[in-house]
Design a protein that fits this description.
Blueprint lengths: L1 H32 L4 H9 L5 H11 L5 H14 L1 E4 L4 E4 L6 E2 L4 E2 H36 L4 H15 L2 H13 L20 H34 L3 H8 L4 H29 L3 H6 L5 H10 L3 H29 L7
Antiparallel strand pairs: 1-2, 3-4
């Protein structure tokens, strides 16, 4: 177990290193291949309104005339030990971990992301609890009642949930439950209260975004759980368990569902990791000041350091979630052993 854990940790670190190289290449190497000059790349940092002289001065201060490998080493070094950025009127120190410095807002990227991370984490955790319970329970019942009215109705709703985009269901939900009569029962978009300040208000403000986001994911999880349960409940060991006289609940939960959860855990790890990196559409639809909306605003403003910071943060969450999923396999499925 320890050897497997060490091997997976090393693999996760290697993957993060590869992601950092790819991310840096997308933002710094590919534009050079497309014909961009160091001055053009500096314009993305100082803004479109900067004069050519200001852009060239920024390119020299940022080291864009240096070889690419030197620039990459400087960027990675800043993550671990910090960096100093000269924005003309002075020098700003970006403490480690430094994921860049925004010359537009004149603020380091990492503290900005930390301020918005509780919003995204609250949205992701609440929605994940809802979609796991609703999706898995619906999938199990549909598999046990295969061909029934409940099965057909549940799968029809699941198909609609998978097909409808979040910006459509989110706007419709806001119109009906936040701004419409007589169902004004949820908070309007754009409101967030920290959990430690008032847990009840925190949950009330996020209730509609939770349900809307969970509806999209629960639909897919219901279909996946149903397919896994139909396959698992036909296995020989399920018939053996029933032949031994085990209670049907034990057969379904301890033997059938436990084995069918393996693909669910895999998908959940990736989905949850991506959401922690920013639920872009949901946060934009409900105007929640999270990582996703932070990334959208940065793209619109052409604020490159913020975009790179969000990309690396999302990559970290996905890699870490994948590591946790691999470790959970042996706990959930007795057929899997770590070696």
């Amino acid at each position: 177990m320890v050897t497997y854990l060490i091997r997976r940790l090393i693999g996760a670190l290697v993957m993060l290193a590869v992601v950092s190289m790819v991310t840096f290449s997308i933002f710094f190497v590919v534009p050079r291949w497309a014909g961009a000059t160091p001055v053009d790349m500096a314009t993305r940092y100082v803004g479109r309104t900067a004069s050519p002289e200001m852009a060239r001065a920024a390119a020299e201060k940022l080291g864009f005339f240096d070889p690419v490998i030197v620039q990459y080493g400087r960027w990675v070094k800043a993550i671990f030990v910090g960096a100093d950025y000269d924005y003309g009127a002075g020098v700003e120190h970006c403490s480690a971990p430094c994921f860049g410095y925004s010359f537009l807002s004149r603020l380091p990227v990492w503290p900005d992301m930390l301020d918005r991370l509780p919003v995204t984490a609250s949205l992701a955790i609440g929605a994940a609890v809802i979609w796991l319970i609703a999706g898995v329970a619906t999938g199990v019942l549909s598999a046990l009642k295969r061909g029934s009215f409940f099965d057909r109705a549940a799968m029809s709703v699941a198909l609609a949930g998978v097909s409808l985009p979040i910006f459509f269901t989110g706007l419709v939900s806001l119109v009906v439950f936040s701004y419409g009569n007589p169902f004004r029962i949820t908070a309007p978009g754009g409101t967030f209260t920290p959990f430690e300040q008032n847990p009840a208000t925190w949950a009330y403000n996020l209730l509609l975004p939770w349900i809307t986001l969970a509806f999209l994911y629960a639909a897919g999880y219901a279909r996946l759980t149903r397919a896994g349960m139909l396959e698992t409940m036909g296995e020989d060991y399920i018939r053996t368990a029933r032949a031994k006289g085990l209670h049907e609940r034990s057969v379904v939960v301890k033997h059938g569902l436990r084995a069918a959860l393996t693909p669910i855990i895999t998908i959940f790890g990736l989905d949850f990791g991506l959401l922690l990196g920013g639920a872009v559409l949901t946060e934009s639809t409900f105007s929640l000041p999270g990582i996703g909306k932070y990334a959208i605003d940065a793209i619109i403003a052409n604020d490159l350091p913020k975009v790179m910071g969000v990309t690396m943060l999302a990559a970290f969450f996905v890699v870490f979630a994948s590591l946790i999923v691999d470790l959970l396999y042996a706990v959930v499925d007795p057929r899997v052993r770590l070696s």
